[in-house]
Write a structure and sequence with these properties.
The structure is a single chain. The protein is of the alpha+beta class and about 150 residues long. The chain folds into two domains: about 1-35, no CATH class; about 45-145, Alpha-Beta Plaits (2-Layer Sandwich). The chain has four helices and four strands. It has helices at about 20-25, 60-75, 110-120, 120-125; strands at about 45-50, 80-85, 100-110, 140-145. A four-stranded antiparallel β-sheet has the order 2-3-1-4. It starts with about 20 loop residues before the first helix and ends with a strand.
Length: about 150
């Protein structure tokens, strides 16, 4: 993003308008943050399991939180550094439904660490999906940048 010149600070170069308050959050970073050279950057891999909120979708959040995710954590062991679960509550437009009914996130040091931990337990983990939802999840593996 360019300097504050005459541009709207809430508008990116491609015309996307940042959500309210984001520029305040960004402004709190030290002015010299981009020049810090002694900070060791660590790679963090996030495996996201996204459950689409389609017509007729059922999702048992209680089961997911109390049974499925603890089972996943137990099977993946220390390779899984942390987990997060989100429940979709609304879409981007007023009154729009959430795009995803739920999202589960698993964090690893590397994609190899994820694959090595997941592969031996893939069948058991995937076989549990019908116990809490009738929707087909989408998987995304990302490198966390911020």
């Amino acid at each position: 993003m360019a300097s504050a010149e005459s541009r709207d600070p809430d508008r990116y170069a491609i015309g996307y308008r940042a959500p309210v308050g984001w520029t305040k959050l960004c402004a709190q970073a030290p002015a010299h943050a981009d020049k810090i050279s002694n900070v060791k950057e660590e790679t963090v891999i996030k495996v996201s399991v996204l459950y689409p909120n389609s017509a007729g979708c059922k999702f048992d959040m209680g089961y997911y939180l109390e049974k499925h995710m603890p089972m996943v954590q137990q099977k993946l062991g220390s390779a899984c550094k942390r987990m997060a679960v989100e429940e979709g509550i609304a879409g981007g437009a007023p009154g729009a439904p959430a795009t995803y009914v739920a999202m589960g996130h698993l964090y690893f040091d590397t994609t190899d660490a994820f694959q090595a931990a997941f592969a031996p337990h893939a069948q058991a983990i995937l076989a549990d999906i019908p116990n809490y939802t009738n929707t087909q999840p989408t998987i995304q593996i990302s490198e966390v940048k911020l």
